[in-house]
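Bench log. Compound arrived from synthesis this morning; before running ITC I wanted a structural hypothesis for how fe (ii) ion sits in the protein. Inputs:
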Amino acid sequence: MVTIEEEVSALIPEIIGIIENKDIKTLHHASGVQRYGSLIMEKLGLDEEYVSLFYTAAIFHDLGKIFWPDEFLNQHINLSLEQFTDVMKHPDSATHFLQMAGVDPRIIQAVRHHHERYDGDMQCKHPGYPDGLKGEQIPFLARILAVADTYEALTSGRPYRDAIAKMTALAIIESEKGKQFDPIVVDALWAAIIDFEKKKQSDIVFLSEIDFYTGCRINAIPAV
Ligand SMILES: [Fe+2]
């Protein structure tokens, strides 16, 4: 007999296929969010179950965009009030869709709340949505998703702007620490990206020390 978990797992590739057909960029963005989220969670020492829930939440976080008209998907600037209202509905649309599919409620809550503001400020230029939650009312997975989502979006090119340099993106996110974003998650992102870049640098140095023809380190003491 097929369990409910197996039925839901079988649906996931189908939902991914729907996102892919509608807008491949949304799927690429989602896999970037998975990558940065996993670096953050590694710094936070979160367990495997958490990471697995996050992976699915990251894939589905912008699922609500599949209901947008095609011409609207690439716009994102100079939005009319009506269009912006539609943008703000995407976590709600995703919630209904995922509930119907029987997805784990922890995943649904992460998807639903990835645009809330940590300080819950509803008077600022960009208030959180859809429910105006604040601080620890916002599920932790959603707070991680918010930071990973923003970092990925800033450091990737868009049809209407170039990619932003990593350090500039980190500085932008830092300026929203304790406002839009949970400070603990922002600190974990900094630590994760700096470690990641350092590792990349040391790999480059190491590769430059390898003799291209022999595959040996240039300064290595020859074996006798
Ligand atoms: Fe979103």
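What the model suggests: The radius of gyration is 20 Å. Confidence is low (pLDDT under 50) at residues 220-224.
ITC booked for Thursday regardless.
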